[in-house]
Amino acid sequence: MSNQLPEPLTPAYSDIRDFGDLPIDVTRVQDSKFAAVVDPASGYYAMMLWFASWHRVPAASLPNDDRQLCHLAGIGRDLSTWKQVKEGALYGWTECSDGNLYHPVLSEKALVAWIEKVHQRIRSGRGNAARWGCEFSEEADLVAKFHEAWEMLKKANPASKLILKGNPLENSKDSARNPTGNPTGNREGILTQSQGKVREGKVREGKVREGKVREGKVREYKDTPKPPQSDSEPEKANAAKAASVSVQQVVDLYHEVLPSLPSVLKVTDARRKAISARIRDDLQTIGQWESYFGKVAPSDFLTGKVDGFRADLEWLCKPANMLKVLEGRYERNQAKPAPPQSKHNGFAQRDYSKGINPDGSF
Hints:
Elements: H1 26-30, H2 33-37, H3 40-54, E1 61-63, H4 66-72, H5 79-89, E2 94-95, E3 100-102, H6 104-132, H7 139-156, H8 161-165, H9 168-171, E4 203-204, E5 207-208, E6 212-213, E7 216-217, H10 232-242, H11 247-257, H12 269-281, H13 286-296, H14 313-316, H15 319-326
Antiparallel strand pairs: 1-3, 2-3, 4-5, 6-7
């Protein structure tokens, strides 16, 4: 049918309300037909509707109702003003089959944000499952949501930077069947004799020939003899093993122990550098990080229960702040009731009976 409405441009369950920023392509807006034909007054209300749609579910959608649109545009209940600016304020928006309005450009931005959010959840869930040896029950549902949004973005803009980078779930080595993150799928990452072939394809006298496997270096076989170690070498080996904590493990643990604090949506270079510095200089094991975050969780001040401040991962990774937390500076910072006001305005009460005789004379 020629009058059939198009399908919604974002998934019905897409929710990016925790994304505070709406990415604006400055050049694209400046060179757009919107900037050329929409008058300034309508353009202002159009931008107000852009912002309102960003934090709606489905993401980047608007209700097709004048009263709600009037309110979302910031006009209140002044429907007469809304009718004057409606055409320009809704420039580019299209009604879809679910009854909502969608803007193709905003929907594309929302799809990118939603894909990044779901991908981060998948990575965190797989990391936690691998670390704790538990089942990642939401994985199948999240992967399905990821692929649905990916296909919608691919259809909307095949030249999107995210699309051109390639599907990260298809490109990454860990899949739904291999959440451990290593090529073999087992948690120890040990190559078995059926996985890869030793160069020259032979194992002589229980020893692995020196060299490389076709797909990575040879890992230790159980029957591979080890060279003798000095007394200090086992200690060094144990220390190195204990210190093998990654930046992503710290981020995942932060989300797990401190879910009320701001989420880390992307591990930027600056964040990676800050976390790596703390791993190198202060907290070398996952147990130390867990203990550190455990000191933050009960703190009213750090979790936003006092004065509205909430610590985030960047704040917690600053050397001075980490030292204060470890020293217990924020353990006793719960809100305290104000002391009762003195009945004497802060002055000590005077004894006016001094010098007065029992009969009332001085």
